Amino acid sequence: MTIYVGIDGGFSGGIVAINNDQKIIGKWIMPVIKGKTSEYDVDNIVDIFEKLQQQDNDIKVILEKAHPRPISGKRQCFTTGDCYGIMKGVLTAMYISYEIVNPTVWMKEMFKGMNIKDKKVSIMWCKRKYPKEDFRASERCKNEHDGLTDATCMAVYGYRLNK
């Protein structure tokens, strides 16, 4: 079976996997070890991909290209770039196929006819495509997690790209 994975980097990012039927088979808030200085939980990230590799699944990953944005602060740019490098390293070390895609490219494809200037557009898109899916970070949260919805959109983009 082929599994398509979307990765939205950053501390508030997410990882989502779908199968050939575009059914969500796994979704994870970006694993982070919180503390005085938060850092990515690389062991947990590796565990996620080891689970996906079970049963000889063919995994295709869409990794969002990290780039500094003028509205982001220096710390946010650094942590997003850190995640980008960690993901490239983990995927390469685990022999997992990945494609780096600029956010404007996947958004243009996925949100045709929608107002892509709004950051919440991925939430709207996911609610339409997966009306029964819960995209909140936890049951206590009131709002959907846009890291999960962005990662879902990237996984579907990967599916479309490879079909």
Description:
The protein has 163 residues and is α/β, with parallel strands linked by helices. It has a single domain (2-162), classed as Ribonuclease H-like superfamily/Ribonuclease H (Nucleotidyltransferase, domain 5). Helices cover 40% and strands 21% of the residues. The protein has helices at residues 42-53, 74-93, 103-110, 121-129, 146-162, and strands at residues 2-8, 14-18, 24-29, 32-33, 39-40, 58-64, 97-101. A hairpin with a 5-residue loop joins strand 4 and strand 5.
Quick overview:
The chain has 163 residues and is α/β, with parallel strands linked by helices.
* Main sheet: strand order: 3-2-1-6-7
The major beta sheet can be summarized as: 5 strands, mixed
CATH architecture: 2-Layer Sandwich
CATH superfamily, please? Ribonuclease H-like superfamily/Ribonuclease H
CATH class: Alpha Beta
Total helices: the number is 5
Strand content: 15-25%
Q: Find the count of extended strands (DSSP E, 2+ residues).
A: 7
Give me the Rg, rounded.
Answer: 15 Å
Helical content (DSSP H or I, runs of 4+): 40-55%
Number of domains: 1
Stretches where pLDDT is under 50 for at least 5 consecutive residues are none
Mean pLDDT: 89
C-alpha termini separation: 14 Å
The sequence of SSEs as H and E is EEEEEHEHEHHH
Q: What general form does the structure show?
A: globular
Look at the helices and sheets and give the structural class: alpha/beta
- In CATH, the topology is named Nucleotidyltransferase, domain 5
